[in-house]
TrEMBL record, chain A:
Keywords: ATP-binding, Nucleotide-binding, Transport. One of its GO terms (biological process) is quaternary ammonium group transport. The keyword DNA-binding does not apply. It comes from Mesorhizobium mediterraneum. GO terms for molecular function: ATP binding; ATP hydrolysis activity. Residues 2-236 form the ABC transporter domain. The lineage of its organism: Bacteria, Pseudomonadati, Pseudomonadota, Alphaproteobacteria, Hyphomicrobiales. This is Amino acid ABC transporter ATP-binding protein. PROSITE patterns: ABC_TRANSPORTER_1, ABC_TRANSPORTER_2. Belongs to the ABC transporter superfamily.
Automatic annotation (TrEMBL), chain B:
This is ABC transporter. PANTHER family: GLYCINE BETAINE UPTAKE SYSTEM PERMEASE PROTEIN YEHW, GLYCINE BETAINE/L-PROLINE TRANSPORT SYSTEM PERMEASE PROTEIN PROW. The chain crosses the membrane at residues 12-32, 59-82, 103-120, 126-152, 173-197, 217-238. CDD domains: TM_PBP2. It comes from Mesorhizobium mediterraneum.
């Protein structure tokens, strides 16, 4: 659990982060959204003390984050940044092993962990381990960057626009990978982005920041349904709201009894994808199949449209 | 195709020829006597006869090596110091100190150093050391202040201490640029070391000065040619090391 209490950061006369308090539950993803200059990155960097706050306290699992020297604190917290920041003079395996080496793990344990992470990220340890970062594609570099951040099995992972430099297709894949890995390791993730789409997709909770202040901190559905201010509303995008709301739900949860013609849609797909498919193919209903391929029922345009309406 | 192959090989071939000629000349200067003979008058000696060219060449290189190593240690240490948060305020001061070292003519340094440390190698070392500081310091400063921002950020974020960042990330990444400064410094020192012989340092300058005093063009030429050949070869060698290091640091292909 991460407790941020009354955190303020001032540089001379300008207040970059202004009295922010929030609690991030363990094993969840909190996304901090805001425009550039909103203080979201500074807030993130105060958690691992790359920036020291002017006032306020941050507690990690109850302990003040100033109870350890900064560098020791940072070894226990994963940190992944935009443009990955891989060490160009070190191989992929050495890059991933950075924090375990600093912590003095023995060689066998480091190798096992590096191999595990590389395999998890679909990078063959034999083939990619000895390569240098500039020999990899952008998507592969990004994956190595996240693998490096996770190497020492941190409970908390901080990510600063980790997908910012990726093209849309690779970005979707990277987001799915991160969600899967978060489930697997139970890591608490705090992710900074300016992309509301990404925030709605990734976050268990979303924190909206504007001019250094925390404007709203709530579940995605709540942010969409009841934006706290005109700024949040504009960030959400008025015309996008119903679709973003649908993107939060799975098809499985919108299934009605009955059958329909045509290719079935998997129950794990988002309701937004199902509606898009319905509209595009001009059909009133789609069959739904479970993970095992068995039919679950159907989704209908009418049913989805009702779900896209503003929650009461 | 054949022509392209030859073009690619030509520089290496020329260097090889130069190395062979240089070694042959300093070990067996007598072989070249007929070539230099026309440059002398009144049956003056053709080949320098007051010491072996080989030992003078080695002493010359030793002087340059000692001065460069010392200048490298001091310049890089100074550059590291002024790029740490605690040392930033010393940046202007150290810049002007190093600049003074460069603007002071080596001859003047020799003249001032002799009364203090006596004749011989010492004043030469002092002059070369001061003269060699600037290129290394400026390059080290450039290297340490133009590191990719997100790489340094990642090193901090991973929990490296200041010392670990310096040794594991900052110095390796700026190594190619620092090497470039060392290369410039070495080449300047190779030429400048010759004037050390005016205060009795044993360098190849001895040969040139002897030629000037006795109006012997053959002496001047052989001293000058050896220094020039050394400078060209060392410059090339260090450039190659620099390119290799840059590739190892994942910086481009050039």
């Amino acid at each position: 659990m991460i407790e941020i209490e009354g955190i303020t950061k001032r540089y001379d006369a300008t207040t970059v982060v202004d009295d922010v308090s929030m609690v991030i539950e363990p094993r969840t993803i909190a996304v901090i959204v805001g425009t550039s200059g909103s203080g979201k990155t500074t807030l993130l960097r105060m958690i691992n003390r790359l920036v020291e706050p002017t006032a306020g306290v941050i507690k990690l699992d109850g302990a003040d984050n100033r109870s350890l020297p900064g560098y020791e604190l940072r070894r226990s917290i994963g940190y992944a940044i935009q443009g990955h920041g891989l060490f160009p003079h070190r191989t992929v395996a050495q890059n991933i092993a950075t924090v375990p080496v600093l912590l003095g793990w023995d060689k066998a344990r480091i190798k096992a962990r590096v191999d595990e992470l590389m395999t998890l990220y679909q990078l063959d340890p034999q083939a990619f381990g000895p390569r240098y970062p500039h020999e990899l594609s952008g998507g592969q570099q990004q994956r190595v960057g996240v693998a490096r951040a996770l190497a020492a099995e941190p409970n908390v992972l901080l990510m600063d626009e980790p997908f910012g430099a990726l093209d849309p297709i690779i970005r979707n894949k990277a987001q799915e990978d991160l969600l899967a890995i978060q489930k697997r390791f139970g890591t608490t993730i705090i992710l900074v982005t300016h992309d509301m789409e990404e925030a709605v997709h990734m976050g268990d909770k979303i924190a909206v920041m504007d001019a250094g202040k925390l404007v709203q901190y709530a579940k995605p559905a709540e942010i969409l349904a009841r934006p706290a201010s005109a700024f949040v509303e504009s960030l959400v995008g008025a015309s996008e709201k119903p679709f973003r709301l649908l993107s939060l739900g799975r098809v499985r949860d919108a299934v009605e009894k009955g059958g329909a013609e045509g290719e079935a849609i998997p129950g794990d797909a988002s309701q937004r994808d199902a509606l898009a498919e319905l509209l595009w193919s001009g059909r009133p209903a789609l069959p739904v199949k479970g993970a095992d391929g068995k039919p679950l029922g159907r989704v209908t345009v009418d049913g989805l449209v009702k779900r896209a309406a503003r929650p009461a | 195709m054949k022509e392209a192959g030859l073009k690619a090989w030509l520089p290496s071939l020329l260097r090889l020829v130069l190395v062979v000629l240089l070694i042959a000349f300093v070990t067996n200067p007598d072989w070249f006597e007929p070539l230099l003979k026309p440059l002398t008058e009144n049956n003056a000696p053709v080949i320098y006869n007051q010491g072996s060219l080989l030992s003078l060449t080695l002493l010359h290189l030793r002087t340059v090596l000692i001065a460069t190593v010392a200048a490298t240690i001091v310049a890089v240490a100074l550059a590291i110091l002024v790029t740490r948060p605690a040392g930033v305020e010393f940046l202007p001061l150290s810049r002007s100190l190093v600049n003074i070292g460069q603007t002071f003519p080596p001859v003047a340094v020799l003249a001032l150093a002799v009364p203090a440390v006596g004749f011989g190698e010492k004043p030469t070392l002092i002059a070369l050391f001061l003269y060699g500081l600037l290129p290394i310091f400026e390059n080290a400063l450039t290297g340490l202040t133009t590191l990719p921002v997100n790489v340094v950020e990642a090193a901090r974020g991973a929990g490296m201490t200041g010392w670990q960042r310096l040794v594991k990330v900052e110095l390796p990444l700026s190594a190619p640029i620092i090497l470039g400064g060392i290369r410039l410094s070495v080449v300047i020192s190779l030429a400048t070391a010759t004037i050390g012989s005016t205060v009795a340092a044993r360098t190849l300058g001895e040969v040139i000065i002897a030629g000037l005093l006795s109006n012997n063009l053959a002496f001047i030429l052989q001293g000058g040619l050896i220094v020039a050949a050394l400078a060209v070869l060392i410059y090339d060698g260090l450039s190659a090391i620099e390119r290799y290091t840059a590739r190892r640091m994942g910086q481009g292909t050039a």
